[in-house]
Amino acid sequence: MEVYLDNNATTMVDPEVFKEMEPFFCHIYGNPNSLHKFGAGTHPKMVEALNYLYDGINAADEDDIIVTANATESNNTVLKGIWIDKILNGNKNHIITSEVEHPAITATCKFLESQGVSVTYLPVNEEGVLDAAQVKDYIREDTALVSIMWANNETGKIFPIKEIGQICKEAGIPFHTDATQAIGKVPVDVQECNVNYLSLSAHKFHGPKGVGALYVQKGYTLTPLLHGGEQMGGHRAGTVDVASMIGMGFAMKLATSKIALAYENNHVRKLRDKLENAILEIPETLVIGGKENRTPNTTLISIRGVEGESMLWDLNQKTIGASTGSACASEDLEANPVMNAFGSDSELAHTGVRFSLSRFNTEEEIDYAIEAIKNAIHRLRAISSSYAYTPKDHVSEL
């Protein structure tokens, strides 16, 4: 049996999404900016896809949604656009973010720091919670942007976006959120939460890879990251990947429906909890950040005495896919920075394993994974030179 539990890294394309995309590879393939019927033939479905994106995050009709290559491009567009508009060409020089953002935010902030920008990285507590009041405390006269993720990619922890949005609105500071890990897992409403910029990536909610979007509220302009043609109203040059845009829109429709969100919150949560509770039956295991206030599909578990990479190797032998954290940093064997930010000791910072489910996982798969995980823990602890191992009376063989 093959069991994929790394859905925060990427998801399978929903077969219904693939059906929507298929005609735009070999049949309706015109450049949408061309004047002939081959180009115009793409327009109805492109408009429909944009409408699905607007509906999925409750954007207003007058707001902009820019199709990008991924959330990384969207994040860079916001941070570097703010840098150009409000820092290089204005009187602002300060950005607020958190210590546990995705590398697409933190690496860009490090670049901006190399250019003289002042960046405040707000800490989280041992439960992975960011206190919204910290944002208010650190806002300065020269603050140009606040950028805080909606949900953490490793722990699933949900941040107080509505409270932060209100603080930023009252202070007159633009607010950006990377909602990549929130779409399709929890309700996302840019109007209710006073969000000015929002990034997302289709492959996180069963859409295709290589396409994302950036929401820009009316009145909040940005210098484009890419210059060239007049695509996306001049906000993002380059011919749009029509098939992927249509796939992203349809995936958004499926993922953000009331039925889909209820399924995530009930069925997927139930499977996640079953997996998690079975692992926690083993001594010296714990959920990083605790169980409260998380997306329903994610758990980051620390297993004392077991290196995360070793656990992944064992699970891979049983055709189970998991992760030690962000896929964008999976080749980095340094201690997990998110776990460090939570205050984990140096040993535990290397022991985190993330399991992230989707609506396509089954209870049979979870049962298989539980057995494999338990056996792997016992095997790896037994050969550890630093862990005092007490063998169980019986360990099942798969």
Lay out the secondary structure.
Layout: E1 3-4, H1 15-21, H2 23-26, H3 37-40, H4 43-57, E2 64-68, H5 71-88, E3 94-98, H6 103-114, E4 118-122, H7 132-138, E5 143-147, H8 161-171, E6 175-178, E7 197-201, E8 212-216, H9 242-255, H10 258-280, E9 285-287, E10 298-303, H11 308-317, E11 320-321, H12 337-341, E12 352-356, H13 363-382
Parallel strand pairs: 1-11, 3-4, 3-5, 5-6, 6-7
Antiparallel strand pairs: 2-8, 7-8, 9-10, 10-12
Enzyme class: transferase
Keywords: 2Fe-2S, Iron, Iron-sulfur, Metal-binding, Pyridoxal phosphate, Transferase
EC number: 2.8.1.7
Structure report:
The protein is of the alpha/beta class. The protein has two domains: 3-9 and 258-382, Aspartate Aminotransferase, domain 1 (Alpha-Beta Complex); 15-255, Type I PLP-dependent aspartate aminotransferase-like (Major domain) (Aspartate Aminotransferase, domain 2), CATH 3.40.640. The protein contains 13 helices and twelve strands. The strands form three sheets. The chain has a seven-stranded mixed beta sheet with strand order 2-8-7-6-5-3-4, with helices on both faces. Strands 9-10-12 form a three-stranded antiparallel beta sheet. It has a two-stranded parallel ribbon with strand order 1-11. α4 (43-57) packs parallel to α9 (242-255) and α7 runs parallel beside α8.
Can you tag this structure with a few keywords?
single chain; 398 residues; alpha/beta; Aspartate Aminotransferase, domain 1; Aspartate Aminotransferase, domain 2; 2 domains; seven-stranded mixed β-sheet; three-stranded antiparallel β-sheet; 13 helices; globular; disordered C terminus; pyridoxal phosphate; iron-sulfur; 2Fe-2S
